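User: Show me a protein chain along with its predicted structure.
Assistant: Here is one chain, sequence first, then structure tokens.
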Amino acid sequence: MDITGQSFFYHLPRILDGLATCCFVALDLELSGIATNPAGPSTGAQTLQERYNDIREAADRYQVLQIGLTIGLEDPKTGTYTLKPYNLHLSPIIDQKLEVERNWSFQSSAVEFLMGNKFRIEAPFQEGVPYLSRDEEKLAMAKAVERRDRVTVPSDIDVKETDHESLQFLKVVRSGINAWLALGDSAEKYLNIPPPKSIHTPKGKSAFPTALNRFQKRLVHQLVQSEYPSLVTIGKPTFVQIIPYDEARENEIKKDRIRRTEERILRQTGFRWIAEALAGGDLSKLDPGVFTSIMSSSAAVEGKHSMKEFADRLKLRLKANRPILVGHNLFTDVVNFCRCFFGPLPVRVEDFQEMLHGLFPVLVDTKYMATHDCGSINPTSSLAEINDSLAEQKNPKIVVDSQHSKYQGKQLFHEAGYDSLLTAQVFVKLSVQLRDGGTSMQSETRPALKQRPTSVHGDTASEGAVSRASSSSGRRSDEAGSHPTQQPVNWKEKTEVSRARSAFSHRTKFDLVTDTAEETAEDSEEEEQPEDESQLLSFEDDAEIARKVKAGELIPRSGAAFWKVYGNKLRVFGTQERVLTLGKDKKPWPER
């Protein structure tokens, strides 16, 4: 489903309601540029800190152009996952009255790649959803407060002695002000410069112009500031209004300006409301009226409530239900996502790991899942081919919501919404394949990938990547024709896992960041379990749910060995560490 700047606030409450009830969200970004490898011969694998430096600097320079978000809803009774993919562009434009500038830049190779995949470069400007990062919001408020507290210092009148026309204009204005003040209590409460045409005004050199230009308006402001401290000026489109100074009124005007700035900030916040919901951030300023359209149909808030009660309950539910955030090659995306919506990033990768884990307690990288046991040889791992290799897998049942049918029968690779949908499908299917905490399918039993022609960009075309799942139940995992039985990892003894090389492939640098240097570090697994797993993945003492998990009809529940292996580990090929690990022990085990 496409979302534009015009339709965003219609869809926002529905997305937030979905986030409050889902068990995972798949994320994908399209960027205006990415970190590139330095020219010259390779000096070996980078450290994780060096790779983070490159991506962080690129995130400072380039922007998120498009976001794909697929909400994954689980029905444990039927063993069905319903996916709701959203696709939207981000607008670079900020309300000028906030006085916050945003500089945009594009990488030529990125633009060439995006346009080659039918990306419309004008779409972010014409259809984009607004956003304002936490950092930009603070800056906008700081500027508003600075304007409010600014002490007005009378400025010199900007007229040269040789500018006889301007001097004559000032003389006429001065004469008009003096005449108005001389009337005392009988005078009007304000004076307009120039006065309305209906009022008799002098002719010839003493005449006022019919309308003031910008220079003339500035002269009137300067004249009053300099010579009439008991008066204040109000700029109008074609004239300047002069009124007596009133301290109480002026203070109220200042407060009103702050209120208007706050309202503009709330309108400009846009997509960051969703980012905050994903990160457990502050939604207290989100207007309760936003939720009016879903109060009778919400899945997150039951019962009848007032508008404010409904909004408060949904916001609390969003904080309590922190869905698993899933991505493919997620490291690059989360760096850019955090920079875009939350502000400048820390310099040290360790500090970023801590910040990221605080924002997203459980992350899953499908690229790590697919290449977990790859050994020292870098496998290629295209999202499209992974999805194709899993196409024959019937369980779990996956359906795409009928209102989100844009991608039915279509292949729109490198559109963020489409790629997020593929990521969601891959996550669900790989989760049941690897549910016992074991390794990926053995090379001798893994289904062979279909051969496809390579595109001009070096990527491959996928066949039937997205389809509605059959309504009939798939085969149980232990039946003939299903995937092979997985061997769980003995964590206490750190049993060595398979070194089978993955058959998945990727060749496009903007599909995934290019895997560059050869790695020599070895594979092993991280013993630490993710700290905060989704409450929606608990057993709830339901034997039937436990049976479905065992049969591969539902993804692993909280506490399963699966999360010890695959949770909170982001694949970073081309680095010595090869994995970024989140949690208590942020330092990854060296891989075999």
